[in-house]
Amino acid sequence: SGACVDFMKLVLSDLPALTELSIGDADADVKMHSDCFYWTEALRVVDLPALTTLTVGNYCFAKVKTVTIKDLPKLERVCVGAGACAGLPNLFDEGNNTTELRNLPALTELVIRSNAFKNHSELKLVNLPSLTDGEKVVLDEGAFAGLKALKHDDLTSETLLEAVKKDHEIKVSKLKKRS
């Protein structure tokens, strides 16, 4: 609990055999705090070709401004714990806290616990075709509570889009195909 609390940056690169990445514990009990990398401003999980499971524990990366999870061809499961990646509140319209999930073709399970990504106002979803089982797409109450804009492509599953739009009044826009 509380590992690397004061670290501003976490970089994992050139790890072609890494299959599982767990930072903290995403226990369903929201009173259990991991608090890892609490003050880190950006979380990028990118280009890890063998990664199948990603877990971000409760209240980890709590002050993060941008989250990018992309280009992970074998990623099957993502679990983000309660209060994780919440971001700082945007009190003065200084910009957005943003989340991007891109090119995750094998992703079949997405669990976002309560108040995770709470202050993230923009979510971009690209090439997430396999999230079709509604029981494996779980967004607990308060997840993406501050969401104002959802951008997506044709390859993103309707099940995921419906789960994100539920209980939110947000601007939804479809991304144009690149030629």
Give start-end ranges of low-pLDDT stretches.
none
Strand content: 25-35%
Mean pLDDT: 89
Rough shape? globular
* Helix vs. strand class: mainly beta
**Biggest sheet record:** 6 strands, parallel
Which radius of gyration do the C-alpha atoms yield? 15 Å
Count of DSSP E strands?
11
Task: Give, in order, the helices and strands.
Answer: EEEEEEEEEEHE
Strand line-up of the largest beta sheet: 2-4-6-8-10-11
Helix count, DSSP H or I runs of 4 or more residues: 1
User: What is the CA–CA distance across the termini?
Assistant: 47 Å
- Helix % is under 10%
In words, what does this structure look like?
- The longest helix is centred in the C-terminal third of the chain and has 8 residues.
- Helix 1 links the parallel strand 10 and strand 11.
- It contains one helix and eleven strands, in the order ββββββββββαβ.
- With 179 residues, it is mainly beta.
List keywords for this structure.
4% helix; globular; 5-stranded parallel sheet; mainly beta; 6-stranded parallel sheet; 179 residues
